[in-house]
Amino acid sequence: MKFELFIAARYLRARRRQTRGQPIIGVITAISVLGVAAGVASLIIALAITNGMRRDLQDRLVGSTAHVELMRTAGDGIKDWRLLTFRLAQMPHVQAVAPGLYGQVLISRGARSGGALIKGIIPSDERNVGNLLQSITQGSADDLSPASTDTNPIPPIVIGNDLALTLGATLNDTILVTSPQGELTPLGLIPRYQRFRVTGIFASGFYQYDSSYAFMRLTDAQRLFSEPDIISVLSIRIDDLYKAAEVGKQLEAAAGAGFEATNWMEQNRELFRALKLEQVVTFIVLALIVVVAALNILIALTMMVMEKTRDIAVMMSFGVRPDQIRRIFLLQGLLISSLGTTLGLIAGYAASLAGSHYRFIRLDASVYSIDYLPFAPHLTDAVIVAAVSLGVALIATLYPSSSAAGVLPAEALRYE
Predict the structure, then answer these.
(1) Beta partners for residue 184, in sequence order
(2) Non-local CB neighbours of 187 within 8 Å, separated by 6+ positions
(3) Which residues pair with 108 in a beta bridge?
(4) pLDDT tens digits for 105-131?
(5) Which of 93, 218, 247, 384 shows the greatest Cβ crowding within 10 Å of its Cβ?
């Protein structure tokens, strides 16, 4: 062990004598270690939460919806959608293409009602671009298939779990779907309505979808919205979701004039920007805990220098250089910070891994879009937090180490 490191470690582990303020220095040193540990653990947990929120939201958004959506800019729908679907499915990076017809409706059952976004689909195609139909917990989407043998005169519909709770609907209940795109009569515009039978209920865990999404057969949606053989969107899944913007431009060019592509990043840009800002602000606020702990390190080392003035003078009398004295106290501060950082990393990662495994913190899905608090600790976060912790501690040791290096042996030993 180098001389400076040996002396620094010796000062920290030496038995405290009940003289000259040694117990106070020991208490302040212990508080410094605990302060650094608390700050580091808080940062690791906070970053794990923000990473988990971002990961879960992204996974659910991308898993529940298409990577790219292609639609007409004029808003009059896509007429030759079968030929266009076949052409786009042959393009590079495209894995699946599914037609869909969106429409806002009012769904009611008895005295209960709620707004919903209906999507007319072909189930076999829709399953290839999104996972919502795979999250059905009651019933199934088999009756939505064009090849279904269902003979019930009331057409089927699949709704979200939270929407079902709002309506008080269960499997095989009949609900009334009212479309504002009605018929023009001498009395004015009369909304079009039709009864549907609930054949499936899905629970994706994402409140936006579970509370306001519903699926029906494409032909039923076209009939409800008076759109014969027209769709509003082509949903597309690609092999690399981070190339969605680039592939979207290629799809626009292939589709021709009058088409516009949007992707999952554009649709959720504000959400992910807010999460990133929250992560930065959280890091800055919680880093103040480490700064406070660094001030405790400064106080502890300053008192240590005052208490060890005679020892410093004796070492300098034996030929120890001022730069070696400076390094002794720099290393002492780094040892305190390293111990606190190590304890904080262990505690932070243990808490994050426990939270990720047991999911013991539940959330209101209507507020946070997900129903539990996710944790996703990253190794890069540990590197950044440890670097910040050690860097702040190093700055805190500059003053006391410089003071120690400036001790004059003759003055210090004059009255000894």
Answers:
(1) 189
(2) none
(3) 113, 176
(4) 999 998 999 999 999 999 999 999 988
(5) 218
The CB-based long-range contact list for 218-222 (8 Å cut-off, 24+ gap) reads 218/99, 218/100, 218/101, 218/120, 218/121, 218/122, 219/120, 219/146, 220/120, 220/155, 220/194, 220/196, 221/101, 221/103, 221/118, 221/119, 221/120, 222/101, 222/120
Question: Coil, strand or helix: which one is 37?
Answer: helix
Kind of pairing, strands 188-202 and 156-160?
parallel
Distances (CA, A) of 134 to 158, 260, 268, 314: 12, 28, 22, 77
Q: What is d(CA 390, CA 397) in angstroms, rounded to the nearest whole number?
A: 11
Tell me the per-residue pLDDT of 184-210, one tens digit each, with 9 for 90 and over: 666 666 778 899 999 999 988 788 889
Do the beta carbons of residue 105 and residue 208 sit within 8 Å? no
Distance between CA 191 and CA 340 in Å, rounded?
A: 68
Burial of residue 409 (CB within 10 Å: 0-12, 13-18, 19+) is: middle
Per DSSP, which regions of 110-221 are E strands? 112-121, 136-139, 156-160, 174-185, 188-202, 213-217
Query: Token digits for 235?
Result: 């949903």
SS3 state at 367: helix
Contact call for residues 225 and 162 (beta carbons, < 8 A): no
pTM exceeding the 0.70 threshold for the entire prediction: yes
Q: Strand pairing partners for 298?
A: none
Q: Are 241 and 63 in contact (CB under 8 A)?
A: no
Q: Is 75 exposed, middle or buried (0-12, 13-18, 19+ CB in 10 A)?
A: exposed
User: Look-up: residue for tokens 């800055």?
Assistant: 284
